[in-house]
Amino acid sequence: MFLLATVCFVLRFTGSSLAAFEVSVPQRRVLAVRGRPVVLGCSYAPSLGNSLDGLVVTWQTAEDNLVLHSFYYGQDQLALQNARYRNRTSMSQPLLGAGNASLRLDRVGPQDSGRYLCSVDSLLGNGKAEVQLEYAAFYTEPKLNIQVHPSNISLQYQSEGYPAPQVQWTDSAGRNLTAREELSGPGEDGLLSLRTSVTLKDPGPGVNLSFTLRNAALGQVLERPVSLRLASDDIGHCTDCTRVTIPLISFLCLLLLLLCLGLAAFAYFRRKRNGMPTACQNGSGKLPPHDPGEGGDGTETVDQRQA
């Protein structure tokens, strides 16, 4: 009877100890933002005295068991670390002793999105917990490009970010417009490249549109109104496209100046070739009066008048 009671006590004690050991994550879903490090949280019940003896912590991907980081024998063990995570992970030993097995991951990109497992094995027991990592990047300021044709107008916005955004074009009455959308990437910078455009047929003298981009992952909303005024000769003017009209005006002014200089130079050399003094040559600032001679062509040179 005594032996049976002892066995029952041992089993109950062992079961309660194992049940008390738990590995947990504070957030099951973690969002990583481009350009910032991310911390994958993980905690467990520490041993007495916060000792690291017998503690083994491993972070790995849930899908294919790639090792991000390992800790045992009281130090980091990176021999089995996958190459894609090399020099990008770190854990704090003081925090490990206190039951914090969180992992810091630097230079996060879209390829890091996925499920990760935090596995802990200690003298008190073992366990694991899973965390979902998602990646996002704020979209850049949209760049507007406008093309005006005799029968239609095309407006295009370009921007970069992550993940795929929600794009909406509306007219002045709030009605949705049919838009074309191109999404490519991500590139090495971890960004998707977005091109979205609308084409308006017979737009009339004035057009008012609104472009809206939403990045739901980051709660980012970019809304840009577009106002167009068209002249009768189908030359468009847009409040957002002064970068197009100003260089055009500057080019026309420069072309006109060069034309005037060319005409002045042509007149100067023509007079010089015909032997006629210029205003600078006679010192008076004025050309001498022209006195037709008796020649058949009515032309008299300077030498003939002096004779």
From TrEMBL:
<keyword id="KW-0472">Membrane</keyword>
<protein>
    <recommendedName>
        <fullName>Ig-like domain-containing protein</fullName>
    </recommendedName>
</protein>
<feature type="transmembrane region" description="Helical">
    <location>
        <begin position="248"/>
        <end position="269"/>
    </location>
</feature>
<dbReference type="InterPro" id="IPR013106">
    <property type="entry name" value="Ig_V-set"/>
</dbReference>
<feature type="domain" description="Ig-like">
    <location>
        <begin position="21"/>
        <end position="136"/>
    </location>
</feature>
<dbReference type="Pfam" id="PF07686">
    <property type="entry name" value="V-set"/>
</dbReference>
<keyword id="KW-0393">Immunoglobulin domain</keyword>
<keyword id="KW-0325">Glycoprotein</keyword>
<dbReference type="GO" id="GO:0009897">
    <property type="term" value="C:external side of plasma membrane"/>
</dbReference>
<keyword id="KW-1133">Transmembrane helix</keyword>
<dbReference type="InterPro" id="IPR003599">
    <property type="entry name" value="Ig_sub"/>
</dbReference>
<dbReference type="GO" id="GO:0050852">
    <property type="term" value="P:T cell receptor signaling pathway"/>
</dbReference>
<feature type="signal peptide">
    <location>
        <begin position="1"/>
        <end position="19"/>
    </location>
</feature>
<keyword id="KW-0812">Transmembrane</keyword>
<dbReference type="InterPro" id="IPR013783">
    <property type="entry name" value="Ig-like_fold"/>
</dbReference>
<dbReference type="InterPro" id="IPR007110">
    <property type="entry name" value="Ig-like_dom"/>
</dbReference>
<dbReference type="GO" id="GO:0001817">
    <property type="term" value="P:regulation of cytokine production"/>
</dbReference>
<dbReference type="GO" id="GO:0050863">
    <property type="term" value="P:regulation of T cell activation"/>
</dbReference>
<keyword id="KW-0732">Signal</keyword>
<dbReference type="InterPro" id="IPR050504">
    <property type="entry name" value="IgSF_BTN/MOG"/>
</dbReference>
<dbReference type="InterPro" id="IPR036179">
    <property type="entry name" value="Ig-like_dom_sf"/>
</dbReference>
<dbReference type="InterPro" id="IPR053896">
    <property type="entry name" value="BTN3A2-like_Ig-C"/>
</dbReference>
<dbReference type="GO" id="GO:1903037">
    <property type="term" value="P:regulation of leukocyte cell-cell adhesion"/>
</dbReference>
<dbReference type="Pfam" id="PF22705">
    <property type="entry name" value="C2-set_3"/>
</dbReference>
<feature type="region of interest" description="Disordered">
    <location>
        <begin position="279"/>
        <end position="307"/>
    </location>
</feature>
<keyword id="KW-1015">Disulfide bond</keyword>
<dbReference type="GO" id="GO:0005102">
    <property type="term" value="F:signaling receptor binding"/>
</dbReference>
